[in-house]
């Protein structure tokens, strides 16, 4: 499962029930930054292991929790990159391909705008925000199904 931009405690005052319903089935939770307080990561870790990156609103306490600025990992054999801010929309696929040359999936946040796009031999995925939808019709999370080095499914799911 992927989420980003929870912005606690202003926006996230506890795990919303619709998010918790999906967390119960998660094998791993990726948080693409702007947690704002590390207690959110602790709360998520009660459901499944959490890997997170720092966003522009995250401080040293989130870094101390174990959130680097960028993350490169392998999930069920699939090379994945995670970053908070992927930069402007123009040139994003090419920029993410250069930043994560081995990745086949890059998860990011920052804009609060859900996105699922493929190109440059890469899939980029922004789950949006479950709690701060801004101009979007719904708060959202992302569900990722990965097996044997393949991304079988990536879905953006409304939770508000």
Automatic annotation (TrEMBL):
Domain Calcineurin-like phosphoesterase: 2-148
The keyword Manganese appears for this protein: no
Entry EC no(s): 3.1.4.-
SUPFAM superfamilies, per database record: Metallo-dependent phosphatases (SSF56300)
Keywords: Metal-binding
Keyword Metal-binding belongs to the record: yes
Xref: InterPro entries: Calcineurin-like_PHP_lpxH, Metallo-depent_PP-like, Phosphodiesterase_MJ0936/Vps29
Short name of any one Pfam family annotated for the protein: Metallophos_2
EC main group: hydrolase
Cofactor(s) annotated in UniProt: a divalent metal cation
NCBIfam families: yfcE (TIGR00040)
Family per record: Belongs to the metallophosphoesterase superfamily. YfcE family.
Protein name: Phosphoesterase
Lineage: Bacteria, Bacillati, Actinomycetota, Actinomycetes, Streptosporangiales
């Amino acid at each position: 499962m992927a989420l980003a931009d929870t912005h606690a405690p202003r926006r996230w005052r506890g795990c919303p029930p619709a998010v918790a319903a999906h967390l119960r089935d998660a094998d791993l939770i990726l948080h693409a930054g702007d947690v704002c307080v590390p207690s959110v990561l602790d709360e998520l870790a009660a459901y499944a292991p959490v890997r997170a990156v720092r966003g522009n609103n995250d401080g040293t306490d989130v870094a101390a929790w174990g959130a680097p600025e960028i993350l490169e990992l392998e999930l069920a054999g699939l090379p994945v990159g995670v970053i908070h801010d992927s930069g402007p929309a123009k040139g994003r696929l090419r920029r993410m391909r250069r930043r994560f040359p081995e990745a086949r999936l890059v998860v990011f946040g920052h804009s609060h705008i859900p996105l699922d796009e493929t190109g440059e031999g890469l899939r980029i995925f922004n789950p949006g925000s479950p709690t701060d939808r801004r101009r979007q019709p719904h708060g959202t999370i992302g569900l990722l199904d990965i097996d044997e080095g393949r991304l079988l499914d990536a879905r953006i799911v409304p939770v508000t």
